[in-house]
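In response to a reviewer's request, we include the raw inputs and outputs for one of the modeled complexes. The two entities were modeled together in a single run.
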Amino acid sequence: MMTGVLVAVGFVAQLAAGTVPPRGEAPAGATAAASSRPPTRSVQQTLPQLDVSRFDSLTLLTLRAQLDLAIENGLPTAPLINRALEGAARRASGAKILQVVRDHMAAMAHARDVLGAKSSADELDAGASALRAGIDMRTLASIRDTRPAGSAVIPLTVLTDIVRRGVPEPTARDAVAAISKMPSSDEALRGLQSTVAKNDFRGPGMAVEALNRYLRGTISGANPLAAPVSPDRKPNRPPPP
Amino acid sequence: MTDRHVLSIQPAEADDGDVAERVAALYASTPRPTAEQIDRCVRAVRAGSMHAPVRRSPFGIPATAWWWGAAAAAAVIVATTTPWQRLATRLQTDSTAVTAAVNAAMRGTVTSISGGAVEFDVVLPTGAKNVAIVGDFNGWDAKASPMVRGRGNTTWSARIPLAPGRHTYAFVIDGERWIVDPLAPQVEGDDGYGPANALVLAAPSS
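The model returned the following structure tokens for the whole complex.
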């Protein structure tokens, strides 16, 4: 009885202060289900505060319920809070915010199934973004195979970006997986992303062509993963009369 | 009017000379009008040629029928063409075009600085009053991290302390337009709120 009163007083004080962390982050709010699961790395991270003043009461209540559900399922809440805050900053409706948070939570659960329970919160966040971008779960598994747990954030981020820019998923998967197996490959992956992004503006198919050129230059003896859309050489023009 | 005033002319049969003779004979046989008839006719013609006094409404607007007809026609034209809607559409199109142009022409650089800070620089082709960077590091608050205007009024920069890991961010121009660096890694799409940039900071090697 006394404990309940103290918890209620504490919640009211936090509400008056304008910030209420998810219940699961408070000692009194940790559920038995959450304590039985292996904690993810998000627990050790600096957790963002859920600014209650940015949401209406109904959205806030539903959001808190979703965060509680995420904690019960052992999912990190920091990416979900960020998605909610981003939606509020973009002046999205409450329904849209809840939909995005719900979809992202479901995608993180799928990503954890593929990437493994030892995956970091950043990996789950990047994996969820990849799945929501339409990337197949088997592709995520192949990326995981190239990197140990905790270090697949950059490959997943690069993969998501170049697929969004029009590179076919099998081509992007093979390229990222090939580079990820190299030692100190993070910089090479950043270079791949930069090359594809710069050539994406040149026209359709230019991103794939640039990827093939970059891959041939990065990995010696690498075969083109896809037929180039246009030849590298300049077009032959007829001589002036 | 009597039957003799009726002039039957058959165009296919009569020629011009015959018609002229018949008209002259008819005019000569017409009885001369009296002075009273002439005076009445002159007064009628003068009354018809004089302008009627213009009636005005209480607001000083001429109350003639033609004026109200013109006003009604103008109202119908304005209501059907709705020039203000075309103006709003043009403004919206211009805004969209400006955003697209800004997205296409802006250039951003991210420089990692020793001490756990990251410097963001963006070059905007159009003049902006203020630019802010928002992201998961400041709760997506457009007022938390304003960028500093650099040289040429087109370069904006901000130095943000960031922990190693994955961060998402975007730029807000004049508190309204959200833009992303087109060359930096992007996440999300149409199913979310819109694109945002992603940045992965490696932990410092020990």
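As requested, we also summarize the result in words. The longest strand of chain B covers residues 165-173. The beta strands of chain B are 107-113, 117-123, 131-135, 148-149, 155-161, 165-173, 177-179, 186-187, 196-201.
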